[in-house]
Write a structure and sequence with these properties.
Elements lengths: L6 E9 L4 H18 L4 E6 L13 H10 L3 E6 L5 H17 L3 E7 L12 H14 L4 E3 L2 H22 L3 H59 L7 H51 L12 E2 L17 H12 L2 H14 L3 H18 L7 E8 L7 H21 L4 E8 L4 H12 L4 E5 L4 H11 L4 E3 L7 H7 L10 E2 L5 H14 L4 E6 L3 H15 L4 E7 L7 H8 L7 E6 L6 H14 L4 E4 L6 H4 L2 H4 L1 H4 L2 E5 L5 H10 L15 H22 L6 H8 L5 E4 L2 E6 L2 E2 L5 E6 L6 E5 L2
Parallel strand pairs: 1-2, 1-3, 3-4, 4-5, 7-8, 7-9, 9-10, 10-11, 12-13, 12-14, 14-15, 15-16
Antiparallel strand pairs: 6-8, 16-20, 17-18, 18-19, 20-21
Length: 749
């Protein structure tokens, strides 16, 4: 659509409740029409009585409907077996509006579907009387057989009137600007009136003080004359003389005080008026400015303007074009920023560049007035960068979010998305700082993240009843969350996720081991939340199987040389024994190094089975140390693995170019789940818009919590049961070194 300005055409739909199905289908029809008209810079806004149900009003609700009619461009009424009192009132209001200005187009449709005998009642006379009234008014109505016939006939009318109607309407953004300007003018007029009233009140106060001053002066003069008379005209004594002088000095001091008081009153009034006006302007700006979420951000938050955010892929390696693009972004020169960032994105598919570019495009459209601030929505993503977490993990999450943002902004015409990026360093305390900062930025509708289950659990209470949190990567079960700390809130009603939990992964891994004939396992485990969750689920599944536990090792506290003794002890049963590595979510750097060392020490003696954190490039790089055969003797349970067709979608998006951490554009589960988490959040916002509601934080949460909420993601259809995905799945993968470098391949459970 480019940078065309949108014109909004309002259509009021009136009918009785008996045509509920036709009304719903008509609304869907208008939404589909918008896909065509939006390319022409036109948006059809359907106004229906359901939009007013929850509205608070001092007036009669029907009066609100009637007022809405006067603001519409097209009035459509549907009738079947009766004409309701309020539907007739709405028609008459439309007719009155047409007669007043001639701008409202009125279309009346009668449904000719067969009427059951049971439907015929006294109300049928209202229909006959109404038709006669239309005839007397000279108003022509149209009959329709079913909803498809109605859509066809109204579509023909739209095609006829649209060229002229579109030419009569002011662009939506201009209308909004005028409304804001008029509102400001009204506020200024009210302030001016208040100023005049205050000045008048001050003048009255000052006049009263002057009058009191005069009365005091007159009384003092009388006292002085009496004193002078009492001393018989002789020179007063020294004491009396001093008294008279002091009285006169007091009068002069009082006079000067009144003059100063008058000055200070005027100054105070001006200050108060200036403060009130500033607050009004600030408030109007804040409620209409989606960029406010990107203003005055700390070092760990960015919309794309910060050179040092984040240290990714590694410090000091920004492309010259990206560096220049971010500098122009920070200055508010969005057109120049877009030019540089597009070149940087072409050279290197850095997800931070992608999100910065997406944001810069939206900000340029806002600044140039081609889109309305009320149609721009802001979300945030909290993920980790730093020594504790592989760069491809945080990068994959940003890629998924930026990918969905780019698709939404491309495919939704007047509606746009801004993404705020936050680096929580995969650390609990940093994630808490991020949470407090994001909650305080009112324009943000929801947050994607954090990466680890432990960080997610740590910040849940800070998002509760304030901001929706959708985690793309947290896999600890709800039971594990609640068991972690009984003193914390057990309310997870503002938390959602598209990813399966450790329970599903543990089931698939145990089934695989049993199917392959493994009889015993030795478990090496970490202590963080996701490791404990997987550990408990895995042991529960083992209890249902024929596999025995022959040993357990706490990776955090035990030395790694246990592997050599296990190799000697179970050498004769090595083909029936598996080492199970249950890893944390990169909470402990030392623990990560120990797991790598365990794989090295094992050197393919036992099958290594593990949970999803083992899915990283550092494991694949061990091929040079332990060899292809040893490395491939490994199976890992992850939430999802893409098909070739699904991987091609990413490759097409990045034009077949490699990502910074990979030699090819490889789709992984973190990226896909981040994409789907963003899709969930965006869908919740869109559904509010489709229902005629202004998206809000609470509305977003309530939409996600609906039983019938669903959306289509990269990983399939997403429906929810509470916080979790209703139909979860997992995949088993193994290293594949048939090509260079090694990669992962999906295996059958």
């Amino acid at each position: 659509m480019g940078n065309e300005i949108i014109k909004i055409i309002k259509i009021f739909l009136a009918s009785s409740s008996e045509l509920k199905d036709d009304r719903e289908q008509f609304e869907i029809f208008i939404n589909r029409k918008n896909k065509k008209y939006i390319e022409q810079g036109i948006f059809l806004e359907l106004v229906v009585w359901e939009d007013f149900i929850d509205a608070m009003s001092k007036t009669r609700l029907q009066d609100e409907y009637n007022k809405a009619i006067t603001e519409c461009h097209i009035f459509v009424s549907l009738f079947h077996t009766k004409v309701g009192k309020y539907t007739e009132e709405e028609f008459l209001k439309a007719l009155e509006t047409f007669k007043a200005n001639g701008n409202l187009r009125i279309y009346t449709y009668f449904k000719n579907a067969p009427i059951n005998a049971g439907q015929i009642g006294p109300e049928i006379m209202t229909l006959l009387n109404f038709k006669e009234r239309l005839h007397n008014l000279g108003h022509f109505h149209t009959s329709y057989a079913d909803i498809n016939d109605l859509k066809h006939k109204f579509s023909e009318q739209l095609n006829k009137i649209m060229p002229k109607l579109a030419g009569e309407i002011e662009p939506a953004f201009h209308q909004e600007q005028q409304e804001i300007e008029q509102a400001l003018k009204r506020e200024i007029q009210q302030l001016e009136q208040q100023k005049q009233e205050i000045e008048q009140a001050l003048r009255r106060e000052i006049q009263q003080l002057k009058q009191q001053k005069q009365e005091i002066e007159q009384a003092l003069r009388r006292e002085i004359r009496q004193l002078e008379q009492q001393i018989g005209g002789h020179r007063p004594c020294t004491l009396l003389d001093k008294l008279i002088v002091n009285i006169r000095n007091t009068i002069n001091l009082f006079r000067r005080w009144l003059i100063e008081l008058n000055k200070w009153f005027k100054f105070a009034i001006l200050c108060i008026l200036a403060l009130i006006l500033s607050l009004v302007i600030f408030y109007v700006r804040e409620i209409t400015d989606p960029l406010s979420a990107c203003n005055n951000t700390p070092d760990f938050i960015s919309c794309g303007e910060k050179l040092g955010f984040p240290d990714y892929p590694s410090p000091g390696q920004l492309l010259p074009e990206e560096e220049k693009g971010r500098e122009e972004f920070a200055k508010g020169n969005y057109k120049e920023a877009i030019s540089y960032l597009e070149k940087a994105w072409e050279k290197e598919k850095d997800p931070v560049t992608l999100i910065a570019l997406n944001n810069a495009r939206v900000m340029y459209q806002l600044k140039s007035g081609t889109i309305s601030p009320k149609n721009v929505f802001t979300i945030a993503v909290s993920t980790g960068f730093g020594d504790k977490i592989p760069p491809d993990f945080g990068g994959s999450i940003l890629t998924g979010v930026g990918w969905q943002q780019a698709e939404f902004n491309k495919n939704n015409g007047i509606f746009k998305l801004i993404v705020v990026m936050a680096n929580d360093s995969n650390n609990d305390d940093e994630a808490l700082k991020v949470a407090k900062e994001l909650v305080g930025r009112e324009k943000i509708m929801g947050v994607i993240g954090p990466y680890s289950s432990h960080a997610t659990y740590y910040v849940l209470d800070d998002y509760l009843e304030k901001l929706v949190l959708i985690s793309p990567t947290s896999t600890a079960t709800i039971e594990a969350f609640k068991a972690q700390d009984k003193n914390k809130s057990q309310d997870l009603s503002w938390f959602f996720r598209p990813i399966s939990t450790t329970e599903i992964a543990a089931q698939d891994l145990v089934k695989y081991l049993e199917k392959k004939g493994y009889q015993q396992v030795i478990i090496f485990h970490d202590n963080d939340l996701v490791a404990q969750s997987f550990y408990n689920n895995f042991k529960e599944e083992l209890d249902k199987s024929s596999i025995n536990i022959k040993g357990e090792v706490n990776i955090t506290t035990s030395p790694i040389d246990r592997v050599n003794s296990l190799k000697q002890k179970f050498n004769q049963l090595k083909d029936k024994t598996a080492l199970v590595l249950i890893s944390d979510a990169f909470i402990d750097t030392e623990s990560k190094e120990k797991k790598i060392q365990i794989i090295k020490e094992n050197r393919g003696t036992f099958l290594i089975a593990g949970n999803n954190p083992l899915f990283n490039d550092e494991v694949l790089e061990l091929v040079d140390t332990i060899g292809r055969e040893s490395l491939e003797k490994m199976v890992i349970a992850i939430p999802w693995y893409p098909s070739d067709e699904e991987s091609k979608k990413l490759a097409d998006f990045v034009d077949q170019k490699p990502l910074p951490w990979s030699t090819k554009p490889k789709l992984n589960w973190q990226m896909a789940m981040a994409y789907d988490a963003t899709k969930m959040l965006v869908e919740a916002i869109v559904q509010q818009l489709e229902q005629g509601q202004m998206p809000s934080r609470e509305g977003t949460r309530n939409t996600l919590a609906k039983d019938d909420f669903n959306t289509e993601g990269l990983t399939g259809k997403i429906t929810l049961k509470g916080s979790d995905r209703e139909d979860p799945s997992s995949s088993l993968i193994s290293p594949d070194c048939s090509t260079t470098p090694c990669d992962w391949r999906k295996i059958n459970p």
